[in-house]
Amino acid sequence: MSSPKASASPSLQRSRRAVTSLSSGLTTASLPGRAPPKVPRRQGIAAAVDGPIPGMWYRPRPAERLEPMSTDAMNDPYALVAAFVEKAQRYPALVALQALGAAALPAIRAGLEHENWHVRHWCAICLDRHGDASGEALESLLPLLHDPASKVRLWAVHSLSCDHCKPYQNPIDAVPLLVERLENDPSLRVRKMAAAMLALMPPDPRALPALEQALAREHDRKIRLHLDRALGRHRQAEASAG
Predict the structure, then answer these.
(1) What percent of the chain has pLDDT over 90?
(2) In angstroms, rounded to a whole number, what is the distance separating the alpha carbons of residues 127 and 139?
(3) What are the chain's domains?
(4) Residues 136 and 156 sit within 8 Å (Cβ to Cβ)
(5) Euclidean distance between CA atoms 14 and 25, whole angstroms
(6) If both were cysteines, with which of 20, 86, 93, 203 could 234 make a disulfide (CB 3.0 to 4.6 Å apart)?
(7) 218 φ, ψ (degrees, to nearest 5)
(8) pLDDT of residue 73
(9) 52 pLDDT exceeds 60?
(10) What CA–CA distance (Å, rounded) separates 102 from 189?
(11) Model pLDDT for residues 87-111, shown as the tens digit of each residue
């Protein structure tokens, strides 16, 4: 008769090894009743950016380590954009750029052409809420729809089309842009974002053929949910009009 250990499945054995590995690293500080008090996540982020947070519309990951920035850097939009190169300074720089308002737009637009894709990525995030009603800043995102980095393209899609995130009327006609990315982008995540944005917009006849073709072509569950939602809104609009 085989022992319980010998009869355990490979996945169970891997789980046991993982638990053993974690247990070996425990200290008295991590035992029940011995853990140090935790700093609330929002408080920790506020300390990292040296001040209150003007809107938590982008949240860093729980394990993300943030570094304080100097007062001079916090007031220099070009220095803040350059800080996007460093992972630990990206969120503090994002918050500081948001606080600077329209004065930061030239630096953000310049960052969209930076050689480092992280800078382009985070500048695209900035423009989700940091553009202007004229549309000039958002139009700077158009080349990024074809950026080599998929995360840059994803945020270009979102920032160009998300009306909910903007404190002004979005002047961009985003439907043709979203249709093109839904049809042609090689990244599932970018196509998923395009489908999600189309599902949030009022029904537009220009999007209907692309939505139907994408539903017949795509197999991912989440993108199909977005496509179903968008097509459902089109059907409701047609029923109301009829």
Answers:
(1) 55
(2) 10
(3) 39-168 (no CATH), 173-242 (1.25.10.10)
(4) no
(5) 17
(6) 203
(7) -85, 145
(8) 73
(9) no
(10) 30
(11) 999 999 999 999 999 999 999 999 9
